[in-house]
Design goal:
The protein has 57 residues and is mainly α. Helices cover 84% and strands 0% of the residues. Keywords: Cell membrane, Membrane, Transmembrane, Transmembrane helix.
């Protein structure tokens, strides 16, 4: 998911350089949404891994 966020971010930068404002804004929005979803999933998985960890004896 982070890969796709980076891909859309790069596409938005390229589109912005060439003057395609609408495409740049749309792809930047998609990249931002994917990045926030990635962060949320990462935090949930981190918490679950800490909770499920078995104590070492």
């Amino acid at each position: 998911m982070l890969y796709w966020a980076i891909v859309f971010f790069i596409i938005s930068i390229i589109a912005g350089v060439f003057g395609f404002g609408g495409i740049a804004a749309a792809t930047a929005g998609i990249a931002q949404i994917l990045f926030y979803i990635f962060i949320a999933v990462f935090v949930v998985m981190l918490i679950l891994s800490l909770v499920r960890r078995q104590p070492r004896v």
